Amino acid sequence: MPIDTWFATQIYFEKLHQASDPIRKQLLLEICDLENLDGGGKSWSKENYKNGFTSYASANRLHESSSTFARWETLVAKHVAKFVKSLELDMGGEKLVMDTCWANVMKKNTHHNTHIHPLSVISGTYYVSAPKDAAEIKFEDPRLNLFMGSPPRKPDCKPKNRNFVSYPATPGYLVLFESWMRHEVPLHTSKEDRVSISFNYHLA
User: Fold this and answer.
1) Domains of the chain, each with CATH number or no CATH
2) Which of 45, 81, 140, 190 gets the most CB atoms within 10 Å of its CB?
């Protein structure tokens, strides 16, 4: 067909390590401790992350304060390098480093509004623990606000033509995306917690 597809948007979704790796269990223990001890995080979450807990505004450099998170970061960095290679980014001799890293615990009826991660290059989320019916991360077509009079897509349209795409919160898996991508996590309705680690990489 004389139709080309341009301006691709890439999302990286891959298992970070083998299920038998004990690092996920240790991360979960440390996040549970953090949730109990981080008074500042609980106060901020009460106002900005209803029904849940996040250390976004209180302890957001966990890879620098925990040996477990530091080891986890070395695993993540290998995947970030693969993603950057696929994106064909011209780094200009600079390298990407993890700048911020924080924990999230979504309890029943917690949600995360649509947002981006300003001033970063690559952002991502790692799923530490989540039930099968956990809320998925949902990405928005970056052209959406330019469609204006365009009719909606058919419900059964091809994946490449969708306006939104979602990835499951699968324990042990990592999702990476360019930081300018708008995304959200809809209402988490499960009785079980959805525990994740979010992070940003920037040029150094």
Assistant:
1) 13-139+164-203 (2.60.120.620)
2) 45
